[in-house]
Amino acid sequence: MKPTTQQSLITELQSFGVRLADPGAGAPSRRGGAGPSDHKAMTIEGRTVMVPVHTAGAFASPYVASVPDAAGVSTIRRDGTVVGEVSFPLQPRFYAMQTLDGVPYSQIATLHGRDVLATTILQTCIRYQSRTKTCRFCAIGQSLAAGRTIAHKTPEQLAEVARAAVLLDGVKHMVMTTGTPNVTDRGAAVLCDSAFAVKAAVDLPIQGQCEPPDDDQWFHRMKAAGIDALGMHLEVVTPDLRRAIMPGKASVPVSRYLDAFSAAVPVFGRGQVSTYILAGLGDTREAILSICETLIGLGVYPFVVPFVPISGTPLEDHPTPSPAFMRELLGPLGAMLKAGGLRSADIKAGCGKCGACSALSAFEAPAESEN
Ligand code: SF4
Fold this sequence. Notes:
By secondary structure, this protein is α/β, with parallel strands linked by helices. The chain has helices at 5-16, 56-59, 142-145, 155-169, 188-201, 217-225, 239-245, 254-268, 285-298, 323-340, 351-354, 360-364; strands at 19-20, 39-44, 47-52, 63-65, 73-78, 81-87, 110-112, 116-120, 173-177, 206-209, 229-231, 273-279, 300-306. Helix 1 (5-16) crosses helix 10 (323-340), helix 5 (188-201) packs parallel to helix 6 and helix 9 (285-298) packs parallel to helix 10. The mean pLDDT is 91.
């Protein structure tokens, strides 16, 4: 099987990044913050993906996006040859609003992909306070230091912004992540308070993301509070590599994640629990596919994304994985998901459903046959 044009273009752009002839095109790009950053949302053949535009690699990318035309369509060229078209989701209307106490809504939650409202409830993390513990890819403190967000989004603020984002911009689901506040509930309690307030204000499917809490009862509490889907993110899967790249977070071993997944799936449902795996940090293709097979067997959706370095982090010069590595990973993974009956489209909320940080959902569809 050879990849489709869409699969190829997405993996190429996510690996190399894109140089923008008009940096102001579309919605403002994300810089700093938790998880993937320094990207811009682009829609390619109906699929919205996040493409690096502010990384060192993107500045040297062979791909250039032209200034969008009157219809908002931009041509992608490689070495002068047209290879595809993209369009840019527009700036959401809720970004123009602010709370009564003067906090811009965009500092409370942002638009991800095309229709996802995303927030980092606690912009601080016990893992981020010391160089010896911090995850080496993470920039959770950068947007806070730059004044682009606030340290703790209250349940009331989140409810207000979620309601506006649904009414004004038609967002379809919400991602709530958080820095880890302690080594007990590990963020589950603040997710419960926040989800409860949002659900009281607006009918919006919510994914909560946290480390595995110390007590599995939290899964029932999160579900009861209105969290529809849960993400517990391994990031890296090989134990030695976990300790090297995220020394603090690796204190929760892979075995605890697997136990937590086994306890969470019966609460949230098969396919409604997911994990996030960053390909390109040293895990082999075999290691990633092996744990994905275990995860799919448990009913967990493994959302595998290409690592993209964020400026200002210890891994800012670490290369992105090649498009070929991603295709060799996502092709078999797409087939494993299909065989396991897990589909991104069936997830109620969250990163797996959004899919913008990876080409994975494009690989769930059948690839083109060899001619
Ligand atoms: S996949 Fe997750 S982190 Fe990436 S854009 Fe979508 S919601 Fe945001």
